Amino acid sequence: MRALDLTASSPDITRAICDIPSVSDHEGALADAIERAIAPLPHLEVHRDGDTIVARTDAGHAQRVVIAGHIDTVPINGNVPTRDVTIDGEPYIWGRGTVDMKAGVAVQLKLAAELVDPAVDITWMWYDHEEVAAEHSGLTRLAASRPDLFAGDFAILGEPTAGLVEGGCNGTLRAIVRTHGVRAHSARSWIGENAIHAAAPVLARLAEYRPRTISVEGLEYREGLNAVAISGGVAGNVIPDLCEVQVNFRFAPSRSEEEAVAHVRGVFEGFEVEIADLAGGARPGLDAPLAQRFLQAVGGAPRPKYGWTDVARFSRLGVPAVNYGPGDPLLAHHDEERVPVAQIEEVERGLRAWLTAR
Amino acid sequence: MRALDLTASSPDITRAICDIPSVSDHEGALADAIERAIAPLPHLEVHRDGDTIVARTDAGHAQRVVIAGHIDTVPINGNVPTRDVTIDGEPYIWGRGTVDMKAGVAVQLKLAAELVDPAVDITWMWYDHEEVAAEHSGLTRLAASRPDLFAGDFAILGEPTAGLVEGGCNGTLRAIVRTHGVRAHSARSWIGENAIHAAAPVLARLAEYRPRTISVEGLEYREGLNAVAISGGVAGNVIPDLCEVQVNFRFAPSRSEEEAVAHVRGVFEGFEVEIADLAGGARPGLDAPLAQRFLQAVGGAPRPKYGWTDVARFSRLGVPAVNYGPGDPLLAHHDEERVPVAQIEEVERGLRAWLTAR
Fold first, then answer.
1. For residue A335, which residues of chain B lie inside 8 Å, CB to CB?
2. Which residue from B199, B239, B250 is facing A226, i.e. has the nearest CB?
3. Which of B5, B124, B324, B338 fits B94 for a cystine, CB–CB 3.0-4.6 Å?
4. Whole-structure pTM over 0.80, yes or no?
5. Average pLDDT over residues B63-68
6. DSSP strand pairing (B303-304 vs A154-157)
7. Hey, which CATH number is domain A10-169+282-356, 3.40.630.10, 1.10.357.140, 3.40.50.300, 3.40.50.720?
């Protein structure tokens, strides 16, 4: 593997790190490449934990910001290696991870290498296992082993926001809704009870569900309740005795985790519901002074973030956090995932201006 | 291994051959034991094809009957070796294969050895790979290499019928009903279309479906339409773009295969339906003169067979066929599979009376 060249342009670094596949649970090669490029830099103190890499300046500034990005992606679907494409005259980098969120990581890597004397101290974090259950996240692991590394006055997550500032985030809950039956040979189906047929009302309630949009501190958070998986079946000639529907509820930051659980249990009243995964949202948090200065530096009005991101994790630790990164979030996880080259450069300029302003 | 003793009682032969495991694809040891016991008998002409053994008398009788049984079982689940058990004072042989269908094979082996001068010519068939996809069946192989061996005026399959005569069998069809959607990140579900939600009407139609009972030549065939598997889902945070429901339609022998397909397509009108597996049923065939004599010899009124069995194969070749064997079909494949000793003896008496009546 060629070494990462952090003197290249941030779009070129984007292509380089997208072409090192790093689907969740397979981040090792990319983490190694990042560590090899960052570890020799004398202005950074580097700590590795699994496939998470933390790099800190320690110049004794009064304020510290944390800037973080995950290095894993959802599964590749014929969209690696990356390509340069032009749509309506605009150049893009196309491929898995370009939006979510290696273009953001590329900007961070470049600035980490170049800003040897920033105006504030910076803690850079590149972490693994963001696209899977929160318990597997590199940040969960790091928060347990080195909570001190999360200290800061403000945090920025480089998740895709099309170069705008997105405040807070929705919460997310995954639950398993189960139906039960009685096995029997399908030639004598009347002896058994079909658990898959029993799931018909579960799917009907999901299909009929009308999600709400909730205003929090002036930003509009749009919710959603969806089946993300379904499974059931024993063999081609057996009446199944179990069907499991996995649902995902994305909820506004005004709902507590407990309220979100109660809502989902209410929707599926009469069915067995097991909560599999739960992460509360984060309120926008844009009233902090560093946040205000950041908004002025990068320009533009803040918007709500729909996706759950690790800003919620910082928010819970008392560190105000926003999302700011290149790429249209609507194209995250999309097979046609692609990021405008100009947006990568714009985010680089925005972050650089803020981090160097004295 | 001790040689099979075909002078033992049919219950003792049942225990002996159940204690030689013969899960599908591992029938060799049992086929060898059968061949060693049968091949030396001077009144039988023996042909072996893989683990299928055919033994024929050839005394020049005007009529020939085919009597067949499969020697494989579904997987063992702690229920081999067999045990003698007594329930409510009635003696049973307990263990894998006792019902489906080694007790039936035991009776056949004993009669094959003892009936040196039957009233009709007999073709005995003991075959492998019945409990798996039809393409692997020993009978499929034999029908290709030696179709002449299937010639006969009437056929009896020793599948478990609790010692009653079960005529014909239902057909079976498996189909995949598919719904499609558009993938998106579940945080912005309104961008995508949820294929699992789109399957709600598929499950609703299954749950509402009222199967018919259809009278064919005086026997009542009960049908059934069931989901036997469902799957869908990409990841916990992705709106799924595909959901597949596998359905199994068990249909009366009065419906042709084409009519069964049309019925299933009609039920799921508006959805993509792929036929995965199809085997027509068999009419009872009890109006044949040999069948009438058989019914008189064994006594009792015939019933319909619900499960698909190899009688359909003989029926398609123009050989009327019925199921007649010891064991409760509801206990087939059951971990508590067990056969009443009295039923084994009763089936032996019934077959012997019919095959020796002049």
1. 183
2. B239
3. B338
4. no
5. 96
6. unpaired
7. 3.40.630.10
